[in-house]
């Protein structure tokens, strides 16, 4: 095992800390969602009449942002573009970990090109969503400081990732790739290796760790919360079937 430098030791500590905060925080939030009393039927009408229909409705929200599309087309375009680009980039980062081989496969150039396009789309979509919170008066009125912070943080992550491809030379980027694979494997297997020393990469990585640790305390938890939202998950059948929740017995009507 190669002796670890101080930078690697610090980032290993930060990585495991961020991961622990994320896991514990998400589990606690899910527990909070699951145990929050839902004493009455409050589906957002028109709502499906069956549980199966409510489930399909949730899938429509998760994959197509159906209610946002119906309420504001421009916000839907920006929000949907960001989410699609973001999830493609996450998937590609995981996939990229398995192609640290020499020589790289023929499709790796296409792979990098798609990532750059998604990064640009992500930055532009986030910037337009940020402007929306500043320019549109009714949105500005209900916006909190945390709403701006999360948009800025996501933009900085995407910009740092793009700069890695545009600012750093191909040779230096190859060196980062060469060290990143063993470092990631070391996190998963406890066979530690030194982290890439590029300052720009360390900035990008630090921002990602900050995002991971912040997720349980932010509105990003909507990726879980939507499955517990009574206005979305409930069917509209109060007359056909009496609604009853044991955990909310004293509040039921």
Describe, in plain words, how this protein is organized in 3D:
This protein is mostly helical and 253 residues long. Helices cover 69% and strands 0% of the residues. It contains 11 helices and no strands. Helix 1 (6-35) packs parallel to helix 9 (199-214) and helix 4 packs antiparallel against helix 5 (108-135).
Number of E-state strands: 0
Strand content: under 5%
Number of separate structural domains: 1
Mean of residue pLDDT? 88
CATH H-level superfamily title: Transmembrane di-heme cytochromes, Chain C
Provide a short characterization of the protein structure.
By secondary structure, this protein is mostly helical. It has helices at 6-35, 51-64, 66-71, 73-96, 108-135, 137-142, 145-166, 170-189, 199-214, 222-225, 230-233.
How is this fold's topology laid out?
Blueprint: H1 6-35, H2 51-64, H3 66-71, H4 73-96, H5 108-135, H6 137-142, H7 145-166, H8 170-189, H9 199-214, H10 222-225, H11 230-233
Keyword list:
Fumarate Reductase Cytochrome B subunit, 69% helix, 253 residues, mainly alpha
